[in-house]
Write a structure and sequence with these properties.
The structure is a single chain. This protein has nine helices and eight strands. With 234 residues, it is α/β, with parallel strands linked by helices. It has one domain: Alanine racemase (TIM Barrel), CATH 3.20.20.10. It has an eight-stranded parallel β-sheet. The two termini are 17 Å apart.
Length: 234
């Protein structure tokens, strides 16, 4: 008989400590960085336990799974849901209605549907453009040279607020190698701001490379395994 997974507050604190050390190493304030706990395939009870330990921002990769957890945890009024998975056109309504943030916008069609389907009683949906920094066709995201044109379109959509950029680089063996793509994303955001945008968010870094991301300016790090352990289906 399988034992139900148990949440460890110590694991959450360890991740917070890693963020703190990395931020201070480069002269940043740790409070500038949002820890996003990724609950993919974890039961809602695990997320509730993390909430009880002070966690407020949670990321989900699948619209239906995230919506079901949002229903189960609806009594937690200040919990914030972030959608961080590949978004299909037939799932945009669910995401537009149930999430506060979307990190993975990479097509004008998806952005337009999210804007049209965002409820008017809700605040604007906070969105990030996913950028594919390496030649990995299987991954979502747009090429760096296409970001500026998509950003211009998304910034005009009435029910969205464009906040910044997101990436998922391939694994790298050293800290400096990990930092390189994150630095590229930061420079890309700075270039957009120099051309008139007012972006303030870099969603980058996960369990194995969050230090490199923080050192290069991450404002959101997305951490699942280091907080919750291996997913139940892994």
């Amino acid at each position: 008989m399988l034992t139900a997974p148990q949440f460890s507050p110590a694991a959450l604190q360890t991740v917070r400590d890693r963020i703190d050390r990395a931020a201070r190493q480069v002269g940043r304030e740790p409070t500038e960085i949002c820890l996003l706990a990724v609950g993919k395939q974890q039961p809602a009870s695990m997320l509730r336990a993390a909430y009880d330990a002070g966690q407020r921002d949670f990321g989900e990769n699948f619209a239906q799974e995230g919506a079901a957890k949002a229903d189960e945890l609806a009594d937690l009024a200040d919990l914030r849901w972030h959608f961080i998975g590949h978004l299909q056109a037939n799932k945009t309504r669910e995401v537009a209605e149930r999430f506060a943030w979307v990190h993975t916008v990479d097509r004008e069609r998806i952005a337009s549907r999210l804007s049209a389907q965002r409820p008017h009683h809700a605040p604007p949906l906070q969105v990030l453009l996913q950028v594919r920094l390496a030649d990995e066709p299987a991954k979502g995201g747009i090429a760096p040279d296409a970001v500026a044109s998509l950003a211009t379109v998304v910034a005009t959509l009435p029910r969205l607020r464009l906040r910044g950029l997101m990436c998922i680089p391939p694994p790298a063996p050293t800290l400096e190698a990990q930092r390189a793509p994150f630095r590229e994303l930061r420079v890309l955001l700075e270039r957009l701001n120099a051309n008139g945008h007012q972006l303030d968010t870099l969603s980058m870094g996960m369990s194995d490379d969050l230090e490199a991301a923080v050192m290069e300016g991450a404002t959101i790090v997305r951490v699942g395994t280091a907080i919750f352990g291996a997913r139940p289906r892994d």
